[in-house]
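Cross-posted from the bioinformatics board.
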Amino acid sequence: MAKRIDVSGLSAYYGNHKAIDDISMTVEPRSVTAFIGPSGCGKSTFLRTLNRMHEVTPGGRVEGKVMLDDENLYGSGVDPVAVRRTVGMVFQRPNPFPTMSIFDNVAAGLRLNGSYKKAELAEIVERSLKGANLWNEVKDRLNKPGSGLSGGQQQRLCIARAIAVEPDVLLMDEPCSALDPISTLAIEDLIGELKERFTIVIVTHNMQQAARVSDRTAFFNLAAVGQPGKLIELDDTERIFSNPSVQATEDYISGRFG
Amino acid sequence: MSHAVQERPVAFAKPRGPLSHARLPRWTPLAVAAGSIAAGVGIGLAAGWHSKVQWGLVAALVFVLATYAITTKVEGSRQAKDRIATSLVWVCFVLAVVPLLSLAWVTISKGMEVLDVYFLTHSMNGVLDVEAGGGVYHALLGTIEQVGIATVIAAPIGLLTAVYLVEYGNGKLAKAVTFFVDVMTGIPSIVAGLFILSTWTLMLDFGPSGFAGAMALAILMMPVVVRSTEEMLKLVPNELREASLALGVPKWRTILKVVLPTAIGGITTGVMLAVARITGETAPVLLLVFGTKLINPNPFEGAQSSLPLYVYEQYAVGTDAAVARAWAAALVLIAFVMILNLVARGIARWKAPKTGR
């Protein structure tokens, strides 16, 4: 299931403003890749180019190639809807659908995309909620609204919703930044389990988190405010945090700037 | 006012420290209100004014000024500003509610004279306008049918226009649509009526019918629906759209299954407000539906009546019996709109996103 992502020469724009410049990198399957870097350096923008969510923003535009195994996401004739079914996403703030129950939230991706039998749907929902470590907490109230859960539970609900459609890749945009340490730990443990099945890319501002959960870490930076963000280096997490090859990475990680 | 204070505030309590200050007793606003009403009545009588409105305005003015003066003296100028704002809010509230209550009271008291089951279930067939008897059934039926048809025409068009403007529209076309919707909001109802009259009735040579009236009402209703729906759709957080799109749901399904259900409560309220607005329109109905004394259940052929038109006609007759019927019909009209509003609120509450655990 999990697929390799191969990015080459990718630039993204908001209207005329270039947000990220000429990024090339490879994301290995069945691993966790963390993106770190100062605010505004284009981590989230880059993440959103990986499932064609960037172009949803008015004025959003992308140049370059993103190969998912052998297929270019930006090739002609590629359907962004199909891309997003393959590359799932979890957002910074938990965003369950307020009109839907917990069950319907998890089933949303499936139900909105096709018809499933009731039993089949129930099975997938249970599997996804178990996969997101939420089943035991919500199994007695699947018909209650999803927005009634706590923040951490809502975020795990969103993860369950994302993995219910069985994507190949899971993108996470600062999934723990709105959560307390206990919920954060729960999500981090979950990421560790999910990488057995998915390719995971996570954006985080928390360097300890990057060090804890990721196998490889990419450091992004921008020359100055208003300049496009660039990929500085991508390496094994251990190396990035112990002996990075670029001075800027070391400065950022040790807190000397940024 | 001051729940936090442990002891009961004593009149003109002396300050005890730098953080406390003299405080007026709780009943001060009531006392000042009573005093100003007395002053208003007194001044009114002394000056020989007959209009109670003048008395009330004097009382309101005295209330605001007295509150300010007393508070400045006892509590200090910051408290006085706070109190003057509060008293202004109260005065405005009373000024807004008094006409409303008096309107409701007059309509109910005069309307109840002839309003009964017979009145609701009979038409004016065979009843001379000047004599008592008859009823409002034909007008009520006409209103329901015309408003219903107008809603069926205007609500989907308005809804889809709003969806286009919020979800798809950018560039010149959307700007033009927004502009024309704004212009349409300002169309006087008689102009909408004349437009349908000139095209439908005169050029295409159809006779008066409920449907013709409904088309004019739809023109009036559409911009209201567009505007309110647009505002409601804009309130739906973008995160929900992105969440749905990121699941690989096509845009049209996202709008249909996520955006619209999230906003459905507000949209329903908006449509109902638009319905309430057109229910009271008289001018286009007068031109296009024409009015009749008979029950005509077919909105597509022949003259119908409607509640506002019925009120207008009966009032124009001018006899006691006719005026009583006009008041009763007005009461039916208000009740009709109010029931619709309550239904809309019920739907909005039922459909609104739930937050309970």
